[in-house]
Structures are given as C-alpha cells and as structure tokens.
Specification:
The chain is mainly alpha-helical. The protein has helices at residues 2-23, 26-53, 59-100, 108-135, 147-173, 177-201. The chain has one domain (34-196).
C-alpha cells in the first residue's frame, strides 16, 4: 500500500511539474493561497472579537459559527475560482487555436489547462478552510482551559499565522520579510480595532 501511494505521488508530482511548465499555474496558486488564507484568518478574527463582546462563552457556539463561515468561504472560493479559471483557460485555448489554425482538444495543452483549473480551485477552496481551522484549535480543548483563554490563544494563533504569511510574501517577492509580516499584523490590528469601535457604538 505504501509503495503504491509513493508511486502515485511520484506520478502526480511529475504530472504537476510537466503541466506547470505548459500552463504556468504555480504562481496563481501561490497568490490564491496567501489571499484566501488571509481572508480566512481575518474572518475568524472578526467572529472571535464580535463573539467575545457579545458575551458568548460556549466553545461549541464559536466552533459552529467559525466552521460554518469557513465552509462557506471554502465552497465560494472553490466554485468561483473553478468557473472563472475554466472560462479563462477555454478562452485562451480558443485564441491559441485561431492563431495556430489547429484544434487543440485532448492535447497536452488542453489537459494542462484542465489540470491547472482543478489545482488552483482546490488551493483557493482549501486555504481559507485550513487557516480558519488552525485559528480555532484552542476551542476544541474545552475541558482543559477556560473560554477566555481560548479566545486569547486563538487570536495569538491568528496573528502568528499573519506573520507567517507576511514573511512568506516577503520571501516570494524577495523583499523585507519583517516588513511584510508587519503589514499583515497591522491588517489584523485594524480589523480588530474597527470591530471594537462598532461594538462600543452599540453599547
């Protein structure tokens, strides 16, 4: 079984690199990963801060609300990206057919475009779900810590993930990693600050 999985993984890896050379989708995938992970983190931060000020002290409620939001973002990300990428790839294929005066259906170029659509859509859908689940991990340990501590740890995880994303962007762009991480953290602070102001206005 392990040998079979290793073989399939090698085959997929080879296909990935081969199709990426044709369709050039890795850059798009990285961009979607960062963008949607960022959206997922900030969304859950908003839910946490809003729930805290609303006096919600039940871990189950926080989990259900966060999971529902994460699933909605995931489905939206996957579906929206799949439809838009599929349309763009088909358009590009048709234009290439006109330029080359050849039908490209069922060729490596067409298959690479389809593969790119699936990969990018998966990344777009999975990234906010994964990021959201990481942020709310503390709420699954209700028997060990208090809900207030869960809130604090979750927000700490959220800021840590923002720092990681910022540093990753700095690495990709070959810019200052610390500066990019700081920009991400500022976004988190602004998000929390605005939500707190909204809560204060309604008190």
């Amino acid at each position: 079984m392990i040998k079979f999985l290793k073989k399939k993984f090698k085959e997929y890896k080879k296909k990935y690199h081969h199709y990426n050379l044709i369709a050039n989708f890795s850059e798009i995938g990285r961009r979607y990963f960062v963008m949607n992970s960022f959206d997922g983190i900030l969304t859950i931060m908003g839910i946490l801060v809003g729930s805290y000020f609303a006096g919600i002290m039940e871990a189950k409620t926080i989990i259900m609300t966060s999971v529902a939001a994460a699933v909605a973002m995931s489905v939206s990300g996957f579906w929206g990206t799949y439809l838009s990428e599929e349309a763009e790839r088909k358009k590009a294929l048709i234009e290439l057919e006109k330029q080359t005066l050849h039908k490209l259906h069922n060729t490596k170029i067409q298959k690479a475009g389809q593969f790119a659509t699936y990969v990018v859509s998966f990344i777009d859908g999975a990234s906010p779900l994964l990021a959201s689940m990481l942020v709310i991990i503390p709420f699954f340990f209700g028997a060990m810590i208090t809900v207030k501590i869960m809130y604090m740890i979750s927000l700490g995880i959220a800021f840590f993930l923002l720092i990681i994303l910022g540093a990753y962007l700095g690495k990709i762009s070959e810019e200052n990693k610390i500066l990019n991480a700081f920009k991400m953290v500022i976004a988190g602070v602004v998000c929390i600050g605005l939500i707190i102001l909204l809560q204060i206005e309604h008190i």
